[in-house]
Fold:
Amino acid sequence: MRFIRNGIIQFLLHKIGFNFSVNPKCLKCVNDCPSDAIDIELGTINDNCIHCGHCVAICPESTVFPDADNINKLHLSTVSSIDFQHLSAGIRTCRSYLDREVDDETLKLLIENMKHYPSASNTRPIQITTVKTKEVVQRLNNQTAGKLIRTLKFITSPVIRPISRIIAPNYNPSLLINYKKQFIARQTPESSQVCHHAPVVMLFHAPVTKYGMAGADSYIWSTYTSLFANTLGLGTCFNGFIVKAMERSKAMRKEFKIPANHMVYSALLIGHPKVKYTNEAGRDKPKAKFI
Ligand SMILES: Cc1cc2nc3c(=O)[nH]c(=O)nc-3n(C[C@H](O)[C@H](O)[C@H](O)COP(=O)(O)O)c2cc1C
Ligand code: SF4
Structure:
């Protein structure tokens, strides 16, 4: 962030005694800055800045300039709280897609809008790989399914079962064995048990760091993307199978062009939905308490 009028001339004027305040009346940026990083007299922003952009967002005179992009005026949203409740109630995981591509303009729009989504410490480490070729989606499906089958075989094997019971108290071998049998029976080269014949799979990935929060960032970005996609009439499905398979397979990460130091933290299937819903899915409210 920087003040538009901040520069060498202003600095020199200040040095010889001119008090060249950037916006002496307002101080909104100073008061809203979470890091006390702004010196309004000097028109400078020091290294405590966490790059949140609040000073840019709050300035009525557009005096503070962002690190990237331009100063763009906000358009007031007309989405009411009831609209949001209706939107949330209407979004279902889509596992049934029309055989129709999602056009590049729409994909670009989904990606462009990610500039608005937050990230921990404003580090914005998330990168997007969009798989949008039928054959590549099918390869991603088959390799993930293969990985899942191998994992299911392993954790349900008679040798591992007792250990799994100790590690995971909720482990239910009969349920898993049944799931494994069904999954294997349905798995053919053309079936799409993981990707559900979605035309697009978006992979959200980032460098692996010890203390970073890329996992949380990824799910926030993919969740916003899912909401936005639904407003465009698209259907989406978070895909944990792909995330888990990618986590375990360096070869898969390499094949799907994920950089060597990155991990895939979330995956989102996107496409035109084949089905329409007319009723809410009845669900319990979350357990919540106020303290
Ligand atoms: C983190 C996460 C991972 C998921 N992974 C998968 C997946 O791999 N395959 C799938 O078909 N659905 C997946 N889902 C979708 C859930 O199964 C789905 O949200 C649940 O069935 C509830 O249905 P709804 O989204 O239509 O309300 C995932 C959802 C979340 C939140
Ligand atoms: S970007 Fe945020 S932390 Fe940095 S100066 Fe502006 S308000 Fe303060």
Remarks:
- The mean pLDDT is 92.
- Residues 205 and 264 are 4 Å apart (CA to CA).
- The chain has eleven helices and eight strands.
- The pocket of iron/sulfur cluster (ligand 2) is lined by residues 1, 33-35, 37-38, 45, 49-55 (CB under 6 Å).
